[in-house]
Amino acid sequence: MSKLNGLVLAGGRSTRMGQDKSQLVYHRKPQREHLTELLRPYCSVVFWSVNAMQANELMDSDQLRIVDAFAIPTPLNGILSAFQYDAEAAWFVVACDMPLLTVQSLDALVKGRNPAKKATVFYDSDGHLPEPLLGIYEPAFGPILHQAIADGVYSPRQLLQQNDVQLLTPPDIRELTNINDPAARAKLGL
User: What single string gives the DSSP state of each residue in 73-130?
Assistant: First the structure.
């Protein structure tokens, strides 16, 4: 099996939330730090996927980060930038807007990982489609991403649907909850 690197997707614009979602505090620390701690036991190293503005703000931070390298307005930018950084590694990807995520789901992904497939992901909250923002992307997925960008395809979910991936049922569907705006955050009650 390829070495497993962690990637906290934190480079989104957070326009609906009105502030950087990776810095929201749900567990007594910014979400990106909380997720880094969750991923660390599973990974050789954990990176933050950040945009150029965030990279400038983090100049004094010791946290390893990968700056978005492409002009793609989707999370695919972070995943593709990670493969550009290390094409031989598998990438354990976690979106910063999943505050209910626990080791229960991370354990299930690692135990259900099939390195012979292009990726290992859960079914989404509807139980029909792959959830692209929490999963393990094997090195074989890197070339698929590069080709997709060349073809103008920017949806990670679409790429998972079109390729041979391991799909798992999440142990607790609530852990896949995305919090993208202040109303959803208030409703969550954390």
Answer: SSTHHHHHHHHHH-TTSEEEEEETT-TT--HHHHHHHHHH--TTSSEEEEE-TTSSSE
